[in-house]
Amino acid sequence: MTETYRASASDGVAWVTGASSGIGRGTCIELARRGYTVIATARRMPDLETLVAEASGLAGRIVPAIGDVTDSAGILALVESIEQQHGEIVLCFLNAGIYFPLRAAPFDADGFRKTFDVNVYGVINCLSAILPKMTARKRGQLAFNASVAGYGGLPRAGAYSGSKAALIAMAESLKFDTDLLGITLQVVNPGFVETPLTALNDHPMPFLMKLDEASRRICDGFEKGGFEITFPRRFAFILKALNMLPYSAYFAVVAKMTGWDSTNASKP
Ligand SMILES: NC(=O)c1ccc[n+]([C@@H]2O[C@H](COP(=O)([O-])OP(=O)(O)OC[C@H]3O[C@@H](n4cnc5c(N)ncnc54)[C@H](OP(=O)(O)O)[C@@H]3O)[C@@H](O)[C@H]2O)c1
Q: Which listed residue (121, 151, 160, 250) is catalytic?
């Protein structure tokens, strides 16, 4: 299949969800540095306002826009208003996501639902607002922020790994269509990046990457094209290779890597 469209700041604006902190915030700054007008969406306006200030003096600019990705009607209206006020969205980074540890016991169905609502249905809500527009124009560049945690199930991540695996498979499947529609679809699979989300982790985080570096890699990936943007490459390769092992070996190696043993049964 052929590569289709590659966005540029002269073609239109970029839209980033989950822009108030972490990877979304870093990517907004990097895109503004590369000349884009970036519409930065999240629920916390004060954090979006400090982001706007942080970007002053860059080649492009950041425009804050409140939006909850779980509110399908709100996202539909938001995309309409972005395009009316700022023009065509040519680059769209669907990044908003949440993680909190979940276990088999006690089983927290609400926690699973909440994770899928933001991480999977949040992306679906945004797609249903933006894809018809890109399809009609026969151009656009879209990226989902999944995770290397979506390559296979990790301890305490039943909802998170499950939601990210769903995003990767959705992107793989949709790409067959988007290639024919003139739309470039990419999946971003970061390893561990220093953000407020990972600050809460109490387990080892091999190859932990600084936010600035991760944001640069993501924007380089947008410019370069190719389906998957993943980093650090060595970590991603190790996790991909693990998932090619027979399950008996997979569970043993992941348990060892993450320090998972029978003592975890009694821990939260
Ligand atoms: N950090 C990592 O190591 C890592 C690795 C792989 C993948 N990822 C993925 O990268 C993405 C960003 O993670 P991060 O580490 O940057 O986390 P973060 O700092 O916690 O940022 C999460 C962002 O998502 C937004 N968000 C959460 N719920 C939302 C909702 N319902 N509607 C709109 N926005 C919402 C938050 O903004 P508001 O609260 O203001 O709405 C915030 O801006 C996630 O999809 C995550 O799974 C992270």
A: 160
Question: What domains appear along the chain, each with residue ranges and CATH number?
Answer: 13-260 (3.40.50.720)
Q: Which residues of 70-97 are buried (b: 16+ CB within 10 A; e: fewer)?
A: eebeebeebbeebbeebeebbbbbbbbb
* Tokens coding 42: 């999240």
- Which pLDDT tens digits describe the chain residue by residue (268 residues)? 455 899 999 999 999 999 999 999 999 999 999 999 999 999 999 999 999 999 999 999 999 999 999 999 999 999 999 999 999 999 999 999 999 999 999 999 999 999 999 999 999 999 999 999 999 999 999 999 999 999 999 999 999 999 999 999 999 999 999 999 999 999 999 999 999 999 988 888 989 999 999 999 999 999 999 999 999 999 999 999 999 999 999 999 999 988 888 778 777 7
Cβ distance 243 to 58 under 8 Å?
Answer: no
Q: Is the CB of 26 under 6 A from ligand 1?
A: no
Of ligand 1's atoms, which has the minimum distance to the CA of residue 43?
41
Q: Ligand 1: does its nearest atom lie under 6 Å from the Cβ of 97? A: yes
Is residue 151 flagged as an active site residue? no
